[in-house]
């Protein structure tokens, strides 16, 4: 992989297909656990060349390397509860795209999300949570309203809408990422993960073929 603004070893579509293939292995119970040995660990000492950045919810059931069957150095992972965008996560995603030249950003939400549930409850009751949890909920409530405009009120349907909203919001907030998509250097895939089935389902995208 080349220096800043250089070309990635994979196209955005190839990166997405690599993740999709890994997720299918995970669903079927045929995981390969690639790049998880000592040789891979030693090869990464000098630097990293991940092929995707995954911005996902912090939920313990959503371990990106496991559900996509990848290993050390394969994915650059950024996580916040409810995959809420903030300056730190935005900076991390811009670093991944503009410095590491990663060709694919995955927004990873999941069903039964506690953060989305809290936002729905707060909107319905008018009672906001305390501390910085309130900040998380305030960032998710616009997605709750967007879902309701489409007559969606259940948690899992709202999660899908929140993934879509996060995808578009990311591009709105970051001119660096917007430019990278326009130049074909990266793409964004919005994914809703099903806890029971283990399936990572594409629900929105920008820049994919």
TrEMBL record:
Enzyme Commission no: 4.2.1.1
Keyword Zinc belongs to the record: yes
Catalytic reaction list: hydrogencarbonate + H(+) = CO2 + H2O
Protein name, per record: Carbonic anhydrase
Highest rank taxon of the organism: Bacteria
Gene name, Swiss-Prot/TrEMBL: mtcA2
Organism ancestry: Bacteria, Bacillati, Actinomycetota, Actinomycetes, Micrococcales
Its job: Catalyzes the reversible hydration of carbon dioxide to form bicarbonate.
UniProt similarity note: Belongs to the beta-class carbonic anhydrase family.
Coiled-coil spans in chain: none
InterPro entries in the record: Carbonic_anhydrase, Carbonic_anhydrase_CS, Carbonic_anhydrase_sf
The entry's keywords: Lyase, Zinc
